[in-house]
């Protein structure tokens, strides 16, 4: 069986292992519901991809879960379109 003639140095070993490090996931925010989504994948919360609904998430849920989900989505949409105080006093508050 072949045996290496010389041993690999620490730097050579570590350079080879540099590509094995874990990389940070780049999450995006869903345009419809605001949930974190991986890029190039549909939103598992609301079933949209690229601004259009691809999967009807509500059809897969039970009646009780559907009611809860519609309530959550309504609250999220209400929070996103909430009116903010644009007066000078409101803007200066921290």
TrEMBL record:
Biological process terms from the Gene Ontology for this record are: translation
Q: Where is this region: Disordered?
A: 1-21, 64-94
Q: Name one GO cellular component term.
A: large ribosomal subunit
A single GO molecular-function term is: structural constituent of ribosome
The source's superkingdom equals Bacteria
| Composition-biased stretches (Basic and acidic residues) | 71-94
User: Which family is this sequence assigned to?
Assistant: Belongs to the bacterial ribosomal protein bL32 family.
- Write the protein's name: Large ribosomal subunit protein bL32
Species source reads: Candidatus Portnoybacteria bacterium CG_4_8_14_3_um_filter_44_15
């Amino acid at each position: 069986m072949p045996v290496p003639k010389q041993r690999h140095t620490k730097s050579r070993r570590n350079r080879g292992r540099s590509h094995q490090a874990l990389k940070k996931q780049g999450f995006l925010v869903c345009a419809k519901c605001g949930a974190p989504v991986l890029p190039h994948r549909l939103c598992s919360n609301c079933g949209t991809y690229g601004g259009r609904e691809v999967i009807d998430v509500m059809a897969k849920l039970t009646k009780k879960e559907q009611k809860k989900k519609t309530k959550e989505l309504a609250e999220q949409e209400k929070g996103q379109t909430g009116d903010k105080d644009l007066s000078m006093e409101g803007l200066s508050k921290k």
